[in-house]
Structure formats: C-alpha cells, structure tokens
C-alpha cells in the first residue's frame, strides 16, 4: 500500500474501511467544539484519497459532532481554506487523543 510522491494512496486502497478505528474516533468528543456524540468525519480533499463517490481513506478521519461536521461539509460560512484548516486542526487533535486514551496500539504483538 505505497503512497505516491504527493502522499496519496492508490485508489484501490482508498475504499478500505476500518470499523474499529471509526468506532474509536466516534467515541471521542468533538475536536472542534468539545461536544459529545461525534462522527468520524473523513477529509474532503483529493490529497486524502477522496474522489467521485469515494470517501477518503480511514486514516484521514477527525472526531466532529454533527453540527461541526455539517458546517465543514457544507462550508457556506467558510472559505475552502478555512474548512481545510478546521478539519486539519480536528484531525491532529483526534490522532493525539486516540493515542493518549490508549485507543490505538502500535506495539508489536508478542
């Protein structure tokens, strides 16, 4: 599953889903406003593997409440760069929280 020079995954791997990861992300509070009851919000940019009718790879998910997720996806009150900044900020916090809470384990199995 090699990425290309721009860091994008090949299209055939983008449809892979990881239900355990999505459930762990959705268990976190919103990484934008702090509310409980979040969703795994996939990135909406081509660099994340998003394409016509295809969500980004699950490595590009942020914990967002329905209201923040809607604001991000609809973007009526934000410019494109603002939506991307919001998502990137929430994604960085999501990754941090997953590790801090022990929801992601990268240790080798013995």
Protein model, in words:
This protein is mainly α and 110 residues long. The protein is built from 4 helices and 2 strands. It has a two-stranded antiparallel sheet with strand order 1-2. The model has no long low-confidence stretch (mean pLDDT 84).
Quick structural overview:
The protein contains 4 helices and 2 strands, in the order ααββαα. By secondary structure, it is mostly helical.
Tag the structure with descriptive keywords:
4 helices; mainly alpha; globular; 38% helix; two-stranded antiparallel ribbon; 110 residues
Number of helices: 4
Sequence stretches where pLDDT stays below 50 over 5 or more residues: none
The main β sheet shows up as: 2 strands, antiparallel
Radius of gyration: 14 Å
Main sheet: which strands, in order across?
1-2
Shape: globular
Number of strands: 2
End-to-end C-alpha gap: 24 Å
Helix content: 25-40%
Layout of helices and strands, plus pairs?
Blueprint: H1 11-14, H2 19-26, E1 39-42, E2 61-64, H3 66-74, H4 80-100
